[in-house]
Write a structure and sequence with these properties.
417 residues; alpha+beta; Pdz3 Domain; 2-enoyl-CoA Hydratase, Chain A, domain 1; 6-stranded mixed beta sheet; 22 strands; globular
Length: 417
């Protein structure tokens, strides 16, 4: 029976603006706050702060500081601000968390520029994985993608600088540069016997949001590239096109989507999940104060056959959306294991314009699984080779089409309210 799917898109999406960040466009939600109202002066009593024999003696720090200033070969080249910022980096670095970083004022400004959605660079999201600098995802049609960089490529060197000791923001400083200039990246990739040098020409990066295609057999492929402030509206526009095309099935393509606004992911999840269903929750270190993020949507798409495509470049909000739809509705996930970025960061501004970004919580999917470090394993694993990419073959999409055609549309398709 040919069932006409009735799509009535009457959703008014109101996006609450929260801070997002990352490298490239900024794929990670900083789920708590951006705080600038900090005290202008903090008094610390140097010495054993609480009189305990186990408390650290801050005189040791002062002694080390003095040795660097008076005895170190290059100590006279350092300003007091250099020493202060170095100490703060050490404090944040002691967390041994790749997502927690200190940004002095110039880096904080660059960070703000990045989250505006248009910036100069090579167009890729990068992060740390197993202590190594890694490409999370190249952006669509970016210099990075055109140069052949792939998700999960490890960046060994940027020009002449080895990346092993760099944090993500320091690596960004090296990779970014004036439009039209070249940056050389030494890349290691699974399956390669040796590293290869890939040169990328920097350009102004415009962050893409979404592509819609109508495939054969009345299938709508909606490829979402990030969860920026425009993604909710763009998604609704895609649904309107699907309505006109009489689409009866959806392939939700989240490959190489590094994330973005949590609120947008929750709102898009609400297109499938009825109001009140869990999307994701936070787990803080005290295990008690985490928030649960519930769907506020109509769930109007829950009866439309859907499958989800992911890969190693699917991170953060992408993992939350895919995991929520599978945990609640059993929607199949196809592709390869996702990146595994599932922590919450807050960004706090210090009195001199510096920023500290620090991890404060884990994301938990509705069934309780942790995303961070694990990623989401697909129900059906389908890998794609470099040769297939060059030939523009897509076995993952082919498998998604095969699987979504196995699902019969429900006779009762609810309107999206």
């Amino acid at each position: 029976m040919n069932i006409k799917v009735q799509w009535k898109v009457i959703i008014a999406v109101v996006l609450e603006i929260v801070l997002i960040a990352g490298v490239g466009f900024g794929g990670f939600y900083f789920g708590v706050s951006y705080t600038s109202a900090l005290p202008h002066e903090i008094t610390v009593n140097i010495g054993n702060l609480n009189g305990s024999s186990t408390a650290p003696d801050f005189n040791t720090f002062l002694q080390a500081l003095q040795i660097v200033k008076t005895d170190a070969l290059h100590g006279n080249n350092l300003t007091d601000k250099d020493l202060l910022y170095g100490a703060i980096r050490g404090v944040v670095g002691s967390l041994k968390d790749p997502h927690s970083v200190f940004m002095p004022p110039p880096d904080a400004k660059k960070f703000t520029d990045e989250i505006s959605g248009s910036f100069g660079g090579v167009g890729m999201e990068i992060g740390k994985k197993d202590g190594r600098l890694v490409v999370i995802a190249p952006l669509k049609d970016s210099p990075a993608e055109k140069a052949g960089l792939l998700a999960n490529d490890f960046i060994i060197k940027v020009n002449a600088t080895f990346t092993e000791t760099l944090d993500v923001e320091q690596a960004v400083d090296l990779i970014r540069g004036p439009k039209g200039t070249k940056v050389d990246l030494l890349i290691a990739r699974e399956g390669w016997v040796e590293t290869k040098l890939i040169s990328v020409i920097r350009d102004t990066i415009q962050v893409p949001t979404l592509d819609y295609k109508k495939l054969d057999n009345n299938i709508a492929q909606i490829q979402l590239y990030n969860f920026n402030e425009h993604a909710g509206t763009s998604f609704l526009d895609a649904l309107k096109k699907a309505e006109k095309d009489n689409a009866q099935r959806i392939i939700l393509d989240l490959r190489n989507n590094p994330g973005g606004f949590l609120e947008v992911a929750v709102q898009i999840a609400g297109l499938w999940l009825p109001s009140g269903m869990p999307v994701v929750s936070e787990e803080f270190r005290d295990k008690a104060n985490g928030d649960k993020f519930l769907s506020q949507g109509s769930g109007g798409l829950k009866n439309i056959p859907t499958v989800i495509l992911v890969n190693g470049g699917s991170a953060s909000a992408s993992e939350i959306l895919a995991g929520a739809l599978r945990d609640n509705l059993g929607i199949k996930i196809i592709g390869t294991t996702t990146f595994g970025k599932g922590t919450v960061q807050i960004l706090k501004q210090l009195t001199d314009g510096s920023n500290i970004k620090v991890t404060v919580a884990n994301w938990l999917l509705p069934k309780g699984s942790t995303i961070e470090g694990n990623g989401i394993k697909p129900d059906i694993e389908v890998k794609i080779t470099e040769d297939q990419i060059k030939k523009q073959e897509d076995p993952q999409l082919e498998k998604a089409i095969e699987e979504v055609l196995k699902i019969k549309p429900n006779l009762v398709i609810e309107k999206i309210q």
